[in-house]
Amino acid sequence: MTSGSHFLTFDCYGTLVDWEEGISAAFAKIARSQGREIDGRRVLEHHAQIEPRVQAEEFQAYRDVLDLTAVGMATELGLELPAEQQHFLSDSLPSWRPFAETGAALERLKDAGYRLGILSNVDDDLLAGTLEHLPVRFDLLVTAEQVGSYKPATGHFQEARRRIGEESSWLHVAQSFFHDVIPACAMQIPVVWINRKDEAPMSSAPSEAVFPDLTSFVDRLLGPGLSIGS
Fold first, then answer.
1. Which terminus of the chain is less hemmed in, N or C, by CB atoms within 10 Å?
2. Co-location of 136 and 205 in the same domain
3. Is 11 among the residues known to form the active site?
4. Do 124 and 216 belong together in one domain?
């Protein structure tokens, strides 16, 4: 793939932003306010169990999804969550920080002439807060609020294809095999898997390539004589 009329889209939380650290830190703060310490691994385990169930219900804003998920997680973790604190997790999202290499990787791609986009399972206002931490302007933003569904449903990809157009090439870059790699492959959209935790693939859905982080992906993409996507 060369730059110019070519799009690179990214999942945001997990690919560009360290959502696991953000969620763990938010729950650690609540726990400390109650004189407790909490295991971050348990926090993420409960999040992985509860959030998909909430998202599988009738579509609602992601802020509400996070609030309901947080209440369920707090119950499982034995934390008290009075009414005035039930928005703590959604309120924390705009403060979640990018991975260490994210900013430099995005700047390199922008400088090389790529058009950049984000396809994310959040609300517009929450994503706007996150964009304050990223050093580049994105050409395309597609959120769950805009399409009325959550990945792995294909609404984000359908809307991105509509906006990008058939004449431009497009490569999607994402950490979540379940939310991004599988639906992108189903729609025959080239996808790169950022496999930060060296996980086994969930299915035989074929990615263009696999990288442990964004730096190695960008090195490969911009390297002489190397090509990813079409």
1. C
2. yes
3. yes
4. yes
106 with 196, same domain: the answer is: yes
Tokens for 4? Answer: 């110019």
- Sign, CA dihedral 195-55-19-47, equals negative
Query: Phi, psi (5° rounding) for residue 202?
Result: -80, -15
The mean pLDDT values, 10 residues at a time, for the chain of 230 residues are 72 98 96 93 96 93 97 95 93 98 98 97 98 98 98 97 92 96 96 96 91 97 71
**At which of 95, 113, 147 does a domain end?**
95
How far is the C-alpha of 4 from the C-alpha of 132, rounded, in Å? 25
Q: Give pTM, 2 decimals.
A: 0.93
Residue 134, SS3?
Answer: coil
Six token digits for residue 138: 């994105």
Strand order in the sheet with 140-143: 140-143, 115-120, 7-10, 170-174, 191-194, 209-211
CATH of the domain at 198: 3.40.50.1000
